């Protein structure tokens, strides 16, 4: 079984990176193969609403880094996405990825249906609930299974590495990862 974590942070190894790697360590300990993709150096254009994915199922007309990430999303049994809070919402790069993947799925064969996944959110101070809900909507509309944890999978930190000082946030993410692995194994 494979788990894919995608960081929407523009920082290469910032707090979102840190928190997703906490989850990946737990998933690896649960026996899953893990992969990490960072959008920090990727170009993901927003959806053009051109309708090509309606005519050519499972395809997007745009040529950018989306083309290399979508197959990884399709192959994963577990999908984790993480974002820092940017003015009360997820990063534009991550939302562009999810929007385009969602449209392709809706007009194609929805390879996300009944996969297991969850969002993880990092903030300096506020906006985590809005961002968490924003990302959660993708998982819900795709028909994915989203297990819970001991709290919402959010944590706080500003400077890279500070998020690891949020003991409750880190523990919540570890519990989420255990629940993701459990659910994926049960559904298999």
Structure description:
By secondary structure, this protein is an alpha/beta fold. Helices cover 43% and strands 16% of the residues. The protein has helices at residues 15-29, 52-55, 66-75, 92-107, 128-141, 167-187; strands spanning 2-7, 33-38, 78-84, 116-123, 154-156. A five-stranded parallel β-sheet has the order 2-1-3-4-5, sandwiched between helices. α1 crosses α6 (167-187). The mean pLDDT is 96.
How many helical stretches? 6
Number of strand segments: 5
**Domain tally:** 1
Secondary-structure-based class equals alpha/beta
CATH superfamily: Flavodoxin domain
Q: Class in CATH? A: Alpha Beta
Summarize the structure.
With 188 residues, the protein is of the alpha/beta class. It contains six helices and five strands; from the N terminus they run βαβααβαβαβα.
Identify the notable features of this structure and list them briefly.
single chain; 188 residues; alpha/beta; Rossmann fold; five-stranded parallel sheet; 43% helix
In terms of topology, how is this protein built?
Blueprint: E1 2-7, H1 15-29, E2 33-38, H2 52-55, H3 66-75, E3 78-84, H4 92-107, E4 116-123, H5 128-141, E5 154-156, H6 167-187
Parallel strand pairs: 1-2, 1-3, 3-4, 4-5
């Amino acid at each position: 079984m494979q788990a894919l974590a995608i960081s929407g942070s523009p920082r290469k190894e910032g707090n979102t990176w840190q928190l997703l790697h906490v989850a990946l360590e737990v998933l690896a300990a649960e026996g899953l193969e893990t992969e990490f993709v960072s959008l920090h150096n990727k170009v993901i254009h927003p959806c053009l609403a051109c309708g090509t994915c309606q005519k050519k199922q499972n395809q997007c007309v745009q040529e950018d880094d989306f083309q290399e990430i979508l197959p990884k999303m399709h192959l994963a049994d577990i999908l984790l996405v993480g974002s820092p809070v940017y003015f009360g919402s997820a990063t534009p790069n991550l939302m562009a990825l999810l929007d385009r993947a969602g449209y392709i799925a809706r007009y194609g064969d929805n390879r996300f249906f009944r996969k297991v996944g969850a969002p993880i959110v990092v903030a300096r101070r506020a906006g985590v609930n809005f961002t968490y809900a924003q990302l959660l909507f993708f998982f819900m509309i795709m028909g994915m299974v989203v297990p819970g944890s001991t709290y919402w999978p959010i944590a706080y930190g500003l400077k890279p590495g500070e998020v690891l000082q949020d003991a409750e946030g880190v523990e919540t993410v570890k519990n989420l990862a255990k629940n993701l692995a459990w659910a994926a194994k049960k559904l298999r």
